[in-house]
Specification:
This protein has 166 residues and is mainly alpha-helical. It is 73% helix and 0% strand. The N and C termini lie far apart (39 Å).
């Protein structure tokens, strides 16, 4: 009976099986490790955005030496993340329609702005803290990831309780 419950729980949590998630996690970890070991830079997406802004902004924060020095390969990395997701979503996904949403554009924009503000307040994004920070046993990252999760769960519960839908 216990084995049946475990199999049912795995099927619910991983509807496409464990392998795609395991492979994806290994590739993310490998990529973050290669970047850190070869450059000494943590592979957080918000830092990659900041270095890209050094092309168009005179703000001192975006024009630090390490950003100017590494911005070219960071842009390639960022475009690779976006391009890889686009290729998967539009070409390789079993159901390309699964990547669409009924959420209004203004809600997506508002959510994006709130995420951007959160990454500034949290001094990094979920990829930097969640993958690299926890991987390096950073206490700050443990606190930030717990905060991200608590706020995400709380927001989802509040939105559901209010009956808000796309």
């Amino acid at each position: 009976m216990l084995t049946l419950l475990q199999a049912s729980a795995l099927e619910t949590a991983f509807p496409r099986g464990i392998l795609p998630y395991l492979l994806g996690g290994l590739l993310v970890g490998l990529g973050a490790s290669i970047i850190y070991l070869s450059t000494g830079i943590i592979a957080g997406a918000s830092t990659f955005l900041e270095s890209t802004l050094s092309y168009v902004s005179d703000v001192e924060r975006f024009n630090r030496y390490k950003y100017i020095q590494s911005r070219d390969w960071r842009v390639v990395f960022t475009l690779g993340m976006i391009g890889g997701a686009a290729i998967w979503g539009f070409v390789l996904a079993p159901d390309p329609g699964a990547w669409t949403t009924d959420v209004q554009w203004w809600r997506l924009l508002g959510g994006g702005i709130l995420v951007g503000v959160g990454t500034r307040l949290g001094k990094g994004c979920t990829s930097g803290h969640g993958v690299c920070g926890i991987g390096s046993l950073s206490e700050t990252s443990f606190v930030n990831v717990a905060t991200f999760l608590a706020l995400a769960i709380g927001t989802a519960q509040l939105v559901a309780a209010l009956g808000v839908s796309p």
